């Protein structure tokens, strides 16, 4: 059976579950600004080329966009100073690192207004740097897969692994997203094996290491904790760790039977091992967050703590997870992170003294992969085109049909048809009393007529997980009152109605809140609530969500919407529900 047939078949067997993003057109350009303090769980500002960009811009876009930082002061002056060849007997080694690729093989983003990213461009940069020093290792810091666009996600992220293989990566670790589909699938991607959707897969052709994820049954790490790689005769030890927050970021089934232990303890234990073997050059691949200013000033985040507490034999730490810039020296350890999505990489140059086998100098440059002025790598470009052709039938699949336009444009009350519809889909998916949806996460309208999977993806392209939680009636009122902050941001709602008075001060505008049966919301009663993981984390200033209890991860927002559309009559009609009323 040809792969394309298998993909078709998989559609008939599987409903659209799991993480799926999309790449409806090859010219999609994503753009945004990003608050570095927020984790990689954000809804996003997308410029979708497909439809009505002007209308999209009117929709009160979120400030944040899935952790892609488009405004980068440090990239304005990307010159790296080469190490002074203080002693010609030192061995020059180059480490090229990426983190948080998220399978964004064919996604172009904007950095300082200019196109950047796509792995064929990243490949061209990496090959250019590799040509400068034959003693080069390619390393990655996790979240290579998961929350990925259809070109990778619909093929079980195998395309991303195949491209890392082709690029000649030498070593990597796992991020939280590698656990999205469970440890069995994680190990299949690395070691090879069969998946019903894609058939047999050869796996990764380079080692992955993680020292702090233990199989509770065997008491052993799920992957080797470290790997020693010899470069020009110099042994370099690589130890992997992933944030211990992983169990809170992944569906419980994805981490069942696993224990995530303290990163620093795991690192130090393995540093001891490496020291016994005479390995003095030690690099940690830590899927943990951190950031610093352009010149290494003001380093913050878990990486600072890790750097301070790990054994001083550790020389370099690659970080990730919060998609930020970091290039700082902390406790004499060089700590780097290079944004996300293939829009940048870390170029770390080290010198090793062959006598002591230790790293005697190290410096890093974070390089943005601007598309201007470089030719994309042809081999990788052709691989991407092949994957795009394979997923096209899925992206073009009709999932439903509407006789009316579902627009995200809000009326004077702050409510939109599509906002109501999406909130209904999310409430239905988790069977809760209420659902709240941030308007910035609704990225396009749905036109009358057939609705394709790709069209739904342009509406909800961010692969946000839906979170079920418990809130009191008072918290719901407080939440709604947070809509009028520095700017107005009207949540789209399902399961309740309310009135608001624009003449009241911000924080006191919400008047009567009613349930569908006409009764008033009880401030002391507990209600079940659905919101996406961005809101659940307090996104867009909705900090009340962070106080909600009993949080449980549910399906991805896109899948909830696709399923909701598929369950409607064909065609269906839907109109504004008048859940929000402004009183004068
Ligand atoms: Zn992560």
Molecular structure report:
24% of the residues lie in helices and 26% in strands. It is of the alpha/beta class and 584 residues long. Strands 11-12-14-15-17-16 form a 6-stranded mixed β-sheet, with helices on one face. A 5-stranded mixed β-sheet has the order 7-6-3-18-19, covered by helices on one side. A 5-stranded mixed β-sheet has the order 24-21-27-23-28. Strand 16 and strand 17 (333-338) form a beta hairpin. Helix 11 crosses helix 15.
Beta-strand residue percentage: 25-35%
Bound molecules: zinc ion
Helix run count: 15
Specify the helix fraction band: 10-25%
Overall pLDDT metric: 87
Strand ordering within the main sheet: 11-12-14-15-17-16
What is the subunit organization of this protein? single chain
Shape: globular
Radius of gyration: 24 Å
Please provide the count of β strands: 29
Short recap of the structure:
The chain is built from 15 helices and 29 strands.
Write the layout of secondary structure elements.
Elements: H1 3-13, E1 29-30, E2 46-47, H2 53-57, E3 91-98, E4 108-111, E5 114-117, H3 119-132, E6 136-140, H4 150-153, H5 158-167, E7 171-172, H6 183-191, E8 193-195, E9 199-201, E10 213-215, E11 226-231, E12 234-242, H7 246-249, E13 258-260, H8 263-276, E14 281-287, H9 302-309, E15 314-318, E16 325-330, E17 333-338, E18 344-353, E19 358-368, H10 378-395, E20 398-402, H11 417-430, E21 434-437, E22 449-452, H12 453-459, E23 465-472, H13 473-481, E24 492-494, E25 497-500, E26 510-514, E27 526-532, H14 533-536, E28 549-556, H15 557-566, E29 580-582
Parallel strand pairs: 1-4, 3-6, 6-7, 12-14, 14-15, 15-17, 21-27, 25-29
Antiparallel strand pairs: 1-2, 3-18, 4-5, 8-9, 10-13, 11-12, 16-17, 18-19, 20-22, 21-24, 23-27, 23-28, 25-26
Helix pairs in contact: 1-10, 5-10, 11-15
